[in-house]
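User: What would this chain look like folded?
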Amino acid sequence: MVDEAKPPLPFASDEVPWTEWSDVPRFGLRYRHLSLAALGEKHRVGVAIEELPAGKQSSPAHYHIFEEEHVFILEGALTAYVGDAAYAMKAGDYICFPAGAAAGHCL
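Assistant: Here's the prediction, encoded as C-alpha cells.
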C-alpha cells in the first residue's frame, strides 16, 4: 500500500538522516529507515541501514503484524534471537522475519 502522494523515486541512502534509538542501557542502535523515506508510513517491507554497537541489543523481542523485516549483515557479527533460539550471524548472512510470525525476534 504505497502512499500515492509520494511516487517511488531513486534516492541516495546517505541522504536519509540517521535516527538514534536507545530505550534503556541494554538497547541501542542507529538507523536510516529507507522504506519509510521512499514510501511513507504505508510500507510493508522494512528496509533500513542499521548500526548496532558492540554489546548492545537492537530492541526487545518483538514481531510485526503487517511489515516484513529482512536482515542482511554487511560487516561484523551478531546473534539473532528468534523465539527461544539463538543464531550466530556474520557478514554475508541473511534472515527474514515475515509479517505475522508470532515468535519475537531481536538482534
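Residues 13-106 form a domain with the Jelly Rolls fold (CATH 2.60.120.10). If you want, I can go into more detail on any region.
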